[in-house]
Amino acid sequence: MHIRFATPADAAQLTSLAAITMREAFGPPYNPAELVDEYISSAITLPQIDAELTDSNATFFVLETTDNKLVGYAKLRRQTPPRRMPAPYRRKGMSIEIQRIYLLQSQIGQGQGRLLMQHCLDWARQQGYAAVWLGVWERNERALAFYYRYGFERFGFHYFQFGSERQRDFWLYKPLTTYFMPQS
User: Fold this and answer.
1) Beta strands in 33-126 (DSSP E)
2) Which of 42, 71, 164, 173 is most buried (CB neighbours < 10 A)?
């Protein structure tokens, strides 16, 4: 396994991976399949992913096998953090959002998530960011436990439009001023 920057040439494979991981993470029994499909049809399309890959405020990493099969990805996005984020990290350029981090279900529990998260944190630190932040669905207990093991802290919430349903996401942040490796 190795991690690399995604390029526009990855758009089709990344779109497919994003749709599969979205269904695996949020489909039944967590949400009705129709709701997940509704979200995917508006947010995870080839034109949408292609546009995101060329967005100067976005950075994508892909996790791939030795035979070049994508099994996970992360998207970091430079944008203004939420107002409730601790003040030192709200200044422009001080923090970056981990907007997406997903693995195929078959890869979960094998250390691939830790590998991808650590890569994101190391890259953000190398770019001079003082913190990362993210939103996570309040009912995604596996993801919440993963982020808490990494030292993320909750600082608020927002509502996320998932298809035709409004769901609540928790905002979490992690300072990057010290190196932190979670315990297994």
Assistant:
1) 58-64, 70-77, 95-103
2) 173
Would residue 184 count as lying in a domain? no
In this predicted model, what pLDDT tens digit does every residue of 30-82 receive, in sequence order? Answer: 888 998 899 899 899 999 999 999 999 999 999 999 898 999 999 999 999 99
Mutual angle of helices 11-26 and 33-43, in 10-degree steps: 150
Residue 112 lies in a domain: yes
Read off the CATH number of the domain in which 126 is found.
Answer: 3.40.630.30
- Per the confidence metrics, is the pTM higher than 0.85? yes
Answer whether residue 91 is part of any domain. Answer: yes
Torsion angle in degrees (nearest 10) through CA of 61, 81, 41, 32: 100
Distance from the first to the final alpha carbon of the chain: 19
Q: Specify if 168 maps to a domain.
A: yes
Residues 177, 95, 53, 69: is their CA dihedral positive or negative?
positive
Domain around 101: 2-175
**Structural domains in the chain (count):** 1
- Least Cα distance to 147 among 123, 176, 177, 113 occurs for 113
Which of 12, 126, 104 is CA-nearest to residue 59?
A: 126
